[in-house]
User: Fold this.
Amino acid sequence: MLTFSLQSSGTIKVVNGGKKLVVFPDKPDPKLDLSLMAHPEKEPEEGVISWPGEYDFDGLSVRGIGHGEGDKVSFVIDVDYVRCAFLASPLEELSDHILELLGDVDALFLPADDAKIGQKIIDQLDPRALFPLEMKDKDAYLDLLDKCGAKGKEAEKEYKIKGRSSLPAEGREVVVLK
Assistant:
């Protein structure tokens, strides 16, 4: 079972059984098993992934996807047959190559930097679960919530996925984390 919770603006904690990781923290958390950083570090510490590439940690498959000139990295994790995509901020339109690397996304963690670009990415990836993440621009976040039909939706402290079958077979569930 996967458990997702919001740590701070744009930072997600993921718990898979006994394994704990954090995606896009300001600095690595040595108390957790893995920290996925949005910006490449020259010499990442043990338990830190900040570069594009493919990694495997005890059944947790991680793919780092570089953007632009290598200034930021988005991630896809595959665990328990659930594919989760974490897009790095600031949000930008995705090339066909990046869309191909992301593949069939079950759960999309989308920074709400730009509602128009966000809506285009949602349409392209068509995830079964969508997690809009409030960033610095509250208006863009509210606009994205409105566009995906979640404006006024009650925020949850954490969200659990008990395997792929627990996700909606049709349509999309929008999850607002607090």
Summary: The first strand starts at residue 2 and ends at 8. Residues 119 and 148 are 8 Å apart (CA to CA). Residues 115-125 form the longest helix (11 residues). Residues 2-174 form a domain with the Metallo-beta-lactamase; Chain A fold (CATH 3.60.15.10).
